[in-house]
Amino acid sequence: MLLAWSNLNEAEALLKDQVTKDAELLVARTNQYIDATLDNVENILLLLSTRQDLLEEDGNDPEAVRTLQSFADYNSSVVRTLYFVRSDGKVFSNTQVNYDIIGNPHLEELYAQALGNYGSIQVSEPYVSPLSGRTLAYMMPVKDRNNEVRGVIVAELGLDLLVSRISPPLIYQSFTLVTASGNVINRMEAGERLLPVMPGTYPPELLPDFTAKLPGLKTGADSMNVNGERLIAVKSAKNRLGWSLIAFIPEDSFYKDLQPLYGNYRNATVLWVVILLFSALMLSRTLTRPIRGLVNKMDRLHDFQVVSKLPEDRRDEIGKLASSFNAMLARIQHLLHETKRAEEKKKEYELKMLRSQIAPHFLYNTLACISSLAKQRRIDDVRQTIRSLVGLLTFSFDRQGEFVALEEELEGLGMYMHIQQVRYGAKYGCRIEIEPQLLELRLLKLTLQPLVENALFHGLAPKGGGTVVVTGGVRDGRLRLYVRDDGVGMSRDDIRDVYRKQAAEPSRHAFTGIGLANVHERIRIHFGEPYGLRIGGRKGVGTVVRVELPLSQPM
Q1: Are 84 and 91 in contact (CB under 8 A)?
Q2: What predicted TM-score, i.e. pTM, was given to this entire model?
């Protein structure tokens, strides 16, 4: 298919190049035909210049008119009107009667132009003559032996005749002649809409915006967009007058010979696709027959616990599939066992959490503190401490399920810190810096409280006081919470042994029996191994615990 597509592109490029060269050659030859026609006009002027006797003031005026008529009749295919303009202002024409009645106001200007260039043949720009219509003039001064000007010969060409004679060899609908000064002579068929014309003009005149673009076209084939249609403009090189011929052809017509080429390649492509599909069908039936047998055996498997392995007696690809299938079954059985064990471990931790919700020492110490406050008659502190204790107990006992909103977890943490500050004074501080949009996200109940409790009694207490800061944010699609303290800090060995030590030696100051190891395992059981706790710290600087959780839906 790639080879065929490449060949099509190359054939298309070659054909377009050939068509373009043929069009350029045809336009160039037409331009040469124009040169030959204009050479004929120059020959007429040269022949007439030999008849200086016709310009004598006492000459034969009827003979001058007959001579001009003879030359005009013989060259009527191009020349419309011939003039002898004598130096005294007398004018003879091959249509003397018409000239005497209508006149020609351009002759005076043409006479002056002819004398302005040392006696050589001059060519005017196109204009409209009363006798010749749309025309341009060839002018040649006639001098005697003493190099004195006797008069000027003027030949007015019929541009409509010239354009009509160009049309048969060009065979294109529309073309224009662009003079050296940028004037445009156009030819269009009646009713043609290929080029933009000014409304209400006859003969049709091109729009000025369009004619302004024509001198800028490159020599050869060029494309342009006219009236929403793509045209190919074939421009010739300039002839001796500095004129250029531009032919306009619709792109579809210009490249019409490409359609059979497209048809041949389309038919060949369809045939090859049919052959390839049939070959693929036969090849697939040959290769998939043993695979279908393997699939039928696999479909009979329902209970992975009692499944039997497939025989591995083949050494081809089917045997490799059977071996891979057996390895997959073993992996599935292992995963089922791991899942079952994880479920049992999850239930074990849930039961452990329920059994050790409230540590007796914490409750005893808190009640003793309330009793001491009552003896001191600090009624407001008693009321507030009881309210915090009741709220903390309610948060621990009455909530249904393991998940709570982050906002509720922080409320419980606030009540816990209030109790600790009443017991130990203002030497312990806790600051919460959580973005408001995170407060509705879910997390496991009693996730942050054990971490703050660990920071108080293992980080700040040995130092004699300090502050715990709880922050949080979202990164990489995960919720990350941080518990930092400025306590005594931890070494790498302390961090490595923190889970084992907490599990073996629970603190008597703890609110619950849930330690760091418990929190870490609960998170991993619920959300997987990528989540859980990460601990970092430096001796004498402090400790930070990062809690990484999936970004769950709000409560």
Answers
A1: yes
A2: 0.43
